[in-house]
Amino acid sequence: MIELNNLQFAYAAGGFQLRLEHLSIPSGQRLGWTGPSGSGKTTLLHLIAGILPPATGSIHTCGVELTTLREAARRDFRIANIGLIFQDFALLDYLSVLDNILLPYRINRSLRLDGSVRDRAGQLAENVGLGQLLSRRPAQLSQGERQRVAVCRALLPTPQLLLADEPTANLDPRNAARVLQALGEYAQQHAATMIVVTHDPNLLSDFDDTIDMATFCDPAPPELGEGGIHA
Amino acid sequence: MRDSLYLAGQHLRHHLVTSAVLVASVTLISYLPVALQIIVTSAEQHFRARADSTPLVVGPRGSSLELVLGSVYFDKPYTDVLRLAELRRINDQKLGQAIPLHVRFRSRDCQIVGTNENYLKLRQLRLTQGTLWNMPGECVVGAAAADRLQLQVGDKIPVSTPSAFTLNNPPLRLRVVGVFAPTETPDDQVLFVNLETTWIIEGLGHGHAQDAQHGSPQARLHTDITPDNVDSLHFHGSRERFPLTAIIVIPPDAKAETLLLGQYLSPDKTTHIVRPRAVMDGLLAKVLMVRSYMVALIAVVSLVTLLTIALVLVLSIRLRKAEIVTMFKLGCSRFTIASVLGSEIAILLTISFASACLLSLMTHAYGPALVRWLILAS
């Protein structure tokens, strides 16, 4: 269950502001988020993931109130419980496919890298058709293969929540379907919640529910005010 | 920490050329001052050791440095001469052992050093092949010269200067009768003969058929001095006036040294006496001054290089902003990110300093030999 209450956020540089009275997403739900650019989709994902702290309000994710946690605790929580997938794949070009998948275990001491993790990484790669490409660098992969590496990296710590920010934007329909299928299968097997931001209306039928983010936030209000959305 | 090192290592390996250039830069700026110190110190010790074993040198008035370089290091032929009478005068005073030197001629790029057996004792020269000379026309070769010219006992080597002994015939040929063991000093590079041989090359002595008149066709027969024709050898003029290029003097004590030094104070004397150690100290003081300038120059270049490297690293971090943001979003702390970047710098510096240490150790081990080779080969 994800619950957001009385949430307010504004970037220090000004401009975009987000205001949300209440949003509740049940566990295991596969949710598609749509909306125009600048409507706050990525910002809200970052708030739910604990990457950005809100100005006010509460964010309850996977049984933890994120706003009460210090930054280090939020990082540990995020890396263990939330799988993040980005539009640009965000792979490290100097690491092999296997090392990119294992990256969460190398950058945070709360995760322990051992033989079983390596085996699981290999199995995940095998499941998405990357079994023969483990020693390659991202530059040697196609776009679809890169995104599948990013998916494996997100799934390796077995997160309860998947947050994917336009994961199919740079992919052809076949690869887009393959990536969403991998995410969907994982969510189903692990009863994980999945939130996918997408601009592709053809993909919306794959989700349990969809939300149009255009109804969430004020386009450019001068001050944070009353109102918001109750989803 | 292990993971930070691993990620840093992967990044450096992926950018191998850049990493190698950075390592090479830091290695060089670390190694150069050390190498300069080792090389200059080795050269200094090499020059000082030779000068220290040569207490005093008497020579024709002129440049002290040229006298020392010509007679102690056989650096180049010394053109001015003093007379054999000076050697006898010093010996008669019993103020020290006087060893004559005549260094004016060459044979196939090797200096010919005319001297006597006392010089060989002074320098502790030891034969590895053959014997010492028994008569004029015989030579004993230094180890490096024998190696370079492929000489062995029994070979003959022509003097580059035409000799009056052969009366306009092909030049006198020296017969190799011995080879000295290597000493890693200038003695290795020269041919040793007795003084009579050098005077023959000077044209002060020659040989021809007993009944031949000078200039007659029979007088042109000898190009080698052999046991058969050595008896025809004769010198013209007063021996007292025969030339030497220098006299090494070994005074028994400080008093004798002082007395000897005092004898050459008069500006009217056509000869002078020098302490090679003092002359070399003066020369080396200039070398040390040059070294100081070099060190200052290297320090400036090093500083500029370090600033450039720092700039490269800062720009590299800026270029990696997207990577750093990704790691942060995934759950990496700023400390870990700094640790990865710091590990890269630490790896670069460690490899660089290790390389510089290795090069310094090699320079320390082989530098003196290299210096000797450079000095002796030049």
Question: What is the gist of this entry?
Answer:
The complex is a heterodimer of chains A (about 230) and B (about 375). Chain A has about 230 residues and is an alpha/beta fold.
Low-confidence stretches of chain B: none
Q: Kindly report the oligomeric state of this protein.
A: heterodimer
Largest sheet of chain A: 5 strands, parallel
Radius of gyration of chain A: 18 Å
User: Which parts of chain A are unreliable, with pLDDT below 50 for 5 consecutive residues or more?
Assistant: 219-231
Helix-and-strand structural type of chain B:
alpha+beta
Plain-language structure description:
The complex is a heterodimer of chains A (231) and B (378). Chain A is an alpha/beta fold and 231 residues long. Chain A has a single domain (30-55, 69-210), classed as P-loop containing nucleotide triphosphate hydrolases (Rossmann fold), CATH 3.40.50. Chain A has 6 helices and 9 strands, in the order E-E-E-H-E-E-H-E-H-H-H-E-H-E-E. Chain A has helices spanning 41-49, 71-81, 97-107, 115-127, 143-155, 173-190; strands at residues 2-10, 17-25, 30-34, 56-61, 64-65, 82-85, 161-165, 193-197, 209-212. In chain A, strands 6-7-8-3-9 form a 5-stranded parallel β-sheet, sandwiched between helices. In chain A, strands 2-1-4-5 form a 4-stranded antiparallel β-sheet, with helices on one face. The longest helix of chain A has 18 residues, at 173-190. Chain A starts with a strand and ends in a 19-residue tail after the last strand. In chain A, 44% of the residues are buried. Residues 219-231 of chain A have low confidence and may be disordered. In chain B, 52% of the residues lie in helices and 16% in strands. In chain B, the strands form 3 sheets. In chain B, strands 1, 3, 4, 5, 6, 7, 8, 9, 13 and 14 form a 10-stranded mixed β-sheet that branches. In chain B, strands 2-12 form a two-stranded antiparallel ribbon. Chain B has a two-stranded antiparallel ribbon with strand order 10-11. In chain B, helix 1 packs across helix 11 and helix 2 (16-52) packs parallel to helix 11 (334-377).
